[in-house]
Design brief:
The complex is a heterodimer of chains A (326) and B (326).
Chain A lengths: L1 E4 H15 L3 E5 L15 H5 L4 E3 L4 H13 L3 E6 L9 H8 L2 H4 L9 E6 L14 H5 L5 E3 L4 H13 L4 E6 L6 E4 L12 E4 L4 E5 L4 H13 L4 E5 L2 E3 L3 H11 L2 E8 L4 H13 L8 E5 L8 H6 L4 H11 L4
Helix pairs in contact in A: 1-7, 3-4, 8-12, 9-10
Chain B lengths: L7 H26 L14 H7 L8 E4 L4 H7 L3 H9 L16 E2 L4 E4 L7 H14 L5 E6 L6 H12 L4 E7 L2 E2 L2 E2 L9 H6 L5 E5 L3 H18 L3 E6 L17 H8 L3 H11 L5 H24 L19
Parallel strand pairs in B: 1-3, 1-4, 4-5, 5-9, 8-9
Antiparallel strand pairs in B: 2-3, 6-7
Helix pairs in contact in B: 1-2, 1-3, 1-10, 1-11, 2-8, 4-11, 5-6
Classes of the chains: A alpha/beta (326), B alpha/beta (326).
């Protein structure tokens, strides 16, 4: 067991994959000489060379599509998109090609591409570098969408994604790269299909993922001090989502709060709430509550930025409302 | 310089291929009116010399990507006519198992990767396929066809730059039929010389008379051979004209009938046949024999498609993922 940062965990996975599989290569803006905009690939250029740690021009659509094309001929490309908002420039490739080619061809081709991007707010990067598009990508059949919240998942999900025959989009919350966690030795394999109960509880289920997990666990600690036992689910995989684990938990606690940084309207939290209402309604003792992004492009000043995303006190408040003590 | 006269067998082959495409599509138009084929139907009639001449230069191992006006490319590449026709009908015996239709003909065995219906969206895929081949040490050439409308798209420029920057064996084959749906080139481009645009990326760029199958065959082969030898990309403009409307929903308000009639005088099949008969390579009776053979193949293809079966609706979500997703 050793303590590593999330960034180091991603780098561990990159190094392991590149070492063990000659089909794997990394490409994106400034992944090579610069070392990656969040330094995930620092040092890898020297280790693996320019062919496999491939700096690209600022052509998100071009190089993301090239990753899809390389996957079509049997490579295992990892495409790094610097930040979530830039992925919108590659949306045509991800949605119109990666997600459709298998289906349009009647199952003749697979697209084993991995697309990583940083996501989320909290670094005062304002309205073009801070959004959360997990819900949008999770909307698209043909894609798998994952949101690693821990160092074990940051490493393990990237390796699992490379073994997956279908396109996987990985959201790495920018606020997590410096966070630390325990990495078992040897590091465990993880799946791309199940949610994880991050904390057990009996009174209310708090459902979250990625950058919101720690704030939600903090809320569970605060709730325990007030006599409320909160269960916390780290969804991990947003598509296909492990509804069994979510609904089983809600069936035990009879109350649910969904926590997600994306905008509330039409968002990821809306889908999770709707599914619980559809399939778990008779197990509920209270309306499903949501703590989600406020309807505003992310503002620059810290106090406004923080006010626009879920924080621990709001999660506590929503949970108290759910248990009838709000 | 006029290409040298072909031998009799060669001439018969070119005539047969062009006629197969022409008669196939004429029948498709009838079947569309009869409601047997639905959706969009984009006919290649008038442009047959392009695919017929160009694809001669490709080896079976070379990859081919096309636009949604790709019935001709599929047939000439060797996808059996009956499977193409079944795909037009949406039957599960079709070359894309019925899931794609007219715009998405795929056949991995013939290395045909669509049938792509986002203008320029498949160009980055071609770059990536060539990149994957290069990294894996395979000496293949990837040829991507697109219309002149695609040169206005960002993905065209991103792909040209990537392929030139990384010196990848891609043939960018631009089928310039003068109109992006209803918009003439001079109404959409500040620089109407497509080869001048392409040359700015530092790659060879040539223009070919796309109505002359012998010229296409000779000049396209030069380009493909050069790309194979150098491993670097090239751009080819194939000047051609579609005799029919853009799709079956097009009233053709944007072009003069006189212009269409003028181009029809350059019909690639009629002019080729006349030249071959004049030169004594083919006789008048050859056309009848070829026509009879084509009609026989076509009748069998239509019968095959008519007898084809609908995929059970229980299989609706098949091939969205490699294994059935949740």
């Amino acid at each position: 067991m050793s303590e590593v940062t999330y960034r180091e965990a991603v780098r561990m996975a990159l190094r392991e994959a590149m070492t063990n599989d000659p089909r794997v290569f990394l490409m994106g803006e400034d992944v090579g000489r610069y070392g990656g905009s969040y330094a995930c690939s620092m040092g890898l250029l020297e280790e693996f060379g320019e062919d496999r740690i491939r700096d690209t021009p600022l052509s998100e659509s071009g190089f993301t599509g090239a990753g899809i094309g390389a996957a079509l001929v049997g490579m295992r490309p990892i495409v790094e998109i610097m930040t979530v908002n830039f992925s919108l420039l590659a949306l045509d490739q991800i949605v119109n090609n990666a997600a459709t080619l298998r289906h349009m061809s009647g199952g003749q081709v697979s697209v084993p591409v991995v697309i990583r991007m940083s996501t989320g707010a909290g670094k005062q990067l304002a309205a073009q570098h801070s959004h959360s598009w997990e819900g949008f990508y999770a909307h698209v059949p043909g894609l798998k969408v994952v949101s690693p919240a821990t160092v074990v998942d940051a490493r393990g999900m990237l390796l699992a994604a490379l073994e997956d025959p279908d396109p996987v989009v990985i959201f790495e919350h920018s606020g997590l790269y410096n966070s630390k966690g325990e990495m078992p030795d040897p590091p465990p394999k993880v799946d791309l299909s199940t949610a994880r109960i991050a904390r057990e509880g009996t009174d209310v289920t708090l459902i979250t993922h990625g950058g919101c997990l720690q704030r939600t666990l903090d809320a569970a600690t605060a709730l325990a001090e007030r006599g409320v036992s909160a269960e916390v689910i780290d969804l991990r995989v947003l598509r296909p989502l492990d509804w069994d684990t979510v609904l089983a938990s809600v069936a035990r606690t009879h109350r649910a709060v969904v926590v997600d940084e994306g905008w509330k309207s039409w968002g990821f939290s809306a889908e999770v709430s709707a599914r619980i209402a559809e399939d778990g309604f008779w197990t509920l003792d209270a309306p499903v509550r949501r703590v989600a992004g406020v309807e505003v492009p992310i503002p620059y000043p810290q106090h406004l930025e923080q006010a626009s995303i879920p924080r621990t006190p709001q999660i506590v408040e929503a949970a108290l409302q759910a248990v009838g003590r709000g | 310089m006029t290409p040298p006269l072909p031998g009799r067998g060669h001439a018969l082959h070119l005539l047969t291929q062009m006629l197969r495409v022409r008669r196939f599509e004429e029948r498709c138009a009838e079947l569309y009116s009869a409601g047997r084929i639905r959706g969009f139907l984009h006919l290649y009639i008038g442009e047959e010399a392009v695919a017929t001449g160009a694809l001669r230069a490709l080896t079976p191992d070379d990859a081919l990507l096309c636009t949604y006006r790709e019935h001709g490319h599929a047939l000439i590449r060797g996808v059996p006519m009956d499977r193409v026709m079944a795909e037009m009908f949406g039957k599960q015996e079709g070359c894309s198992r019925g899931r794609g239709g007219s715009m998405h003909l795929f056949d991995a065995a013939h290395r045909l990767y669509g049938g792509n219906a986002i203008v320029a969206g498949h160009l980055p895929l071609a770059v990536g396929m060539a990149l994957g081949d290069r990294m894996a040490g395979r000496e293949r050439v990837t040829t991507v066809f697109f219309g002149e409308g695609a040169v206005a798209e960002g993905e065209f420029h991103e792909s040209m730059n990537l392929a030139a920057l990384w010196k990848l064996p891609v043939v960018f084959a631009c089928e310039n039929n003068g109109y992006a749906m209803g918009t003439a080139l001079e109404r959409s481009e500040s620089q109407t010389s497509l080869t001048a645009k392409a040359a700015s990326y530092g790659m060879p760029a040539v223009s070919i008379d796309g109505m002359d199958v012998l010229a296409v065959e000779r000049d396209f082969r030069h380009i493909v051979d050069a790309v194979r030898a150098t491993g670097s990309p090239a751009f080819v403009e194939l000047k051609t004209y579609r005799f029919r409307a853009h799709s079956m929903f097009d009233a053709e308000l944007y072009r003069d009938r006189d212009e269409v009639e003028l181009w029809k005088k350059r019909d690639p099949i009629a002019t080729f046949l006349a030249r071959m008969v004049d030169a004594g390579v083919l006789g008048a009776q050859d056309l009848e024999r070829v026509e009879a053979k084509v009609q026989e193949e076509l009748a069998a293809a239509v019968a095959f498609a008519e007898a084809g079966t609908w995929e059970p609706v229980e299989e609706l979500t098949k091939d969205v993922y490699t294994e059935a997703g949740r």
